[in-house]
Amino acid sequence: MVKQKSKLIDIFTNNEQEILEDWMREQIASITYRKDLLTEAELRTQSAELMGLMIAASRSGNVTDMTTPEWKPVLDFLAATSKTRAAQGFTTQETATFIFSLKQPVFARMKSELGTNASALAEEIWIATVLLDKLGLFTAETYQKSREDIIRRQQRELLELSTPVIKIWEGILVLPLIGTLDDSRTQVVMENLLQNIVDTNSSIAIIDITGVPEVDTLVAQNLIKTVSAARLMGAHCIISGIRPQIAQTMVHLGVAFGDVVTKSSLADALKYAFQQAGITVT
């Protein structure tokens, strides 16, 4: 780790405006510049703010150790910028280029001021490279984590959309399931069903698995979990959509729903639910 005092802070401080202008030209000329997502004025504001924060942090004399308190404002700014760009639709490369494009302007200014001293020039270029590489990698990592968070949230939202709970009658809910029922989706199904039982004060819930391609041991266990959770909320559950193929598979696997009422179709389940609720439909 480089600990000696670097001339980089003087180069930044004495040439702040020139470096900023060169940096802006580098970013705007780059193929990664997304003028559809970020205006030139917004880019200039972000670049100028980061330059100011870097100069302030560098005044401590340490320009390569990002763990010191002086660099926290810089990292916080980059983290916020990365998260914003992730949400806006920037790619990892486009986000990281925000930092890496600063290399050329800084190196050019170093060459201008230290060109006659090859040893000092090489040393300062190395220090600047370490600094900008660390900041660039931090930016890319933060961006990636933000993208992963966005993807997880979108996946959960899609799961919620794919498991609608429908109130078809006073006190009666229907939960039509389509596709596989894994552990993560089971959690969403239970949360949605239980919340709707509370919100609608329903006493009967029909879980229709007509759209579930196959019922194996795992799916059956997840269905039983959902039924058990609903029972704890005071609701009676009915499972409908037990097709002949599914019934045969369940017998073969030794899977049983216990005392849970099952019906071959949603129509039969509705008829049974109406009878249990004392509802006569004419």
Word description of this protein:
Strand 2, helix 8 (183-200) and strand 3 form a beta-alpha-beta unit. The protein is an alpha/beta fold and 282 residues long. It has helices spanning 8-14, 16-29, 40-58, 72-88, 92-100, 103-114, 118-161, 183-200, 217-232, 244-253, 266-277, and strands at 166-169, 172-178, 204-211, 236-240, 261-263. Helix content is 63%, strand content 10%. Helix 2 (16-29) crosses helix 6 (103-114) and helix 8 runs parallel beside helix 9. The chain has two domains: 8-157, Globin-like (Orthogonal Bundle), CATH 1.10.490; 166-277, STAS domain (Transcription Regulator spoIIAA). The protein has eleven helices and five strands. This is Anti-sigma-factor antagonist. It comes from Methanoregula boonei (strain DSM 21154 / JCM 14090 / 6A8). Keywords: Phosphoprotein.
What is the secondary structure topology, with strand pairs?
Blueprint: H1 8-14, H2 16-29, H3 40-58, H4 72-88, H5 92-100, H6 103-114, H7 118-161, E1 166-169, E2 172-178, H8 183-200, E3 204-211, H9 217-232, E4 236-240, H10 244-253, E5 261-263, H11 266-277
Parallel strand pairs: 2-3, 3-4, 4-5
Antiparallel strand pairs: 1-2
Helix pairs in contact: 2-3, 2-6, 3-4, 4-7, 5-7, 6-7, 8-9
Domain STAS: 162-273
InterPro entries: Bact_StressResp_Reg, RsbRD_N_dom, STAS_dom, STAS_dom_sf
Keywords: Phosphoprotein
